[in-house]
Amino acid sequence: MIIKKIFNNNAVLAKDLSNREIVAMGCGIAFKKSVGQELEEKEVEKTFILKEKEASERFKLLLEHIPSEHISICYDIVEYAKNTLKVELNDYIYVTLTDHVSNTIKLYKEGITRPNALIWEIKKFYPKEYSVGLKAVQAINDELRVYLSEEEAGNIALHLINAQVNNSFENVSDIANQTKMIQDILNLVKYSYGIVLDEKSLSYERFVTHLRFFFKRLKNRKENEEKKEEFLLKQVKEKYKKAYECMLKIEKYLNEKLTEEEQLYLILHIQRITD
Questions:
Q1: Residue 56, pLDDT above cutoff 70
Q2: End-to-end CA gap in the chain
Q3: DSSP for 209-247, written as a single string
Q4: Maximal C-alpha separation, the chain
Q5: pLDDT tens figures, 67-126
Q6: Which of 31, 116, 117, 191 could form a disulfide with 151 if both were Cys (CB 3.0 to 4.6 A apart)?
Q7: What residue ranges define each of the domains in the chain, with the CATH number in brackets?
Q8: What is the dihedral of CA 24, 129, 164, 61, to 10 degrees?
Q9: Alpha carbon distance 195, 94 (integer Å)
Q10: Quick check: 252 and 244 in contact, CB under 8 A?
């Protein structure tokens, strides 16, 4: 590999034999070296090859302003998340997560902490991502000698959720908003029926999963794609009156005019979860 640019003593931009741009990292990898010199592979500890051009350019900017140890630990977190969650993550996770973690550490050293109001909802609805977040916080605390709280695991989980390929949400705030809405809707169902829902039941899990896809449909739907289910909806409204009334409360909460198909599916799920 030939050095193309030196970010600091521990990180460089290089070109490999296939003429691909690679960010190479290693302790003292660029010490006493200059652009154009060859980089020995034994000196390289980690390499980044980001396919998305915009993500790659943003990542290079991060290297100029963020400590290399922050970048290194976030790289390990992303790789651990990929292997644990068994999902494909967008390249931008290297940028967004690294920027977030580095800024969080900076604020921590200044005595500033940011509470996560959705920590319990994240633990409940995204247990796998939250578990990875806990491991990430432990690794950050151990390696960088800081003490980030459990709430930071929730923040990291939100970044992992957002980075999953085929996720239609655009940013972390969308995921956070969706998580709050799921909890609010579950509360509406519970209070409408005056019951405690079995959170370990298959019906509960299906309902939460349906809500996630339901929000995606609300976000992306087009008027000309709406399907009419007038006859079936009329029958369901008459048969499951209480579920229908509960659905109307959810519709009012969302402040969104639902299609008849969306109303139908919500009524059926509410009936199933409360039966």
A1: yes
A2: 65
A3: HHHHHHHHHHHH--GGGPPP-HHHHHHHHHH-HHHHHHH
A4: 80
A5: 888 988 998 999 999 999 998 888 888 888 998 899 899 889 988 877 777 788 788 888
A6: 116
A7: 1-49 (2.30.24.10), 52-167 (1.10.1790.10), 179-274 (1.10.1790.10)
A8: -30
A9: 43
A10: no
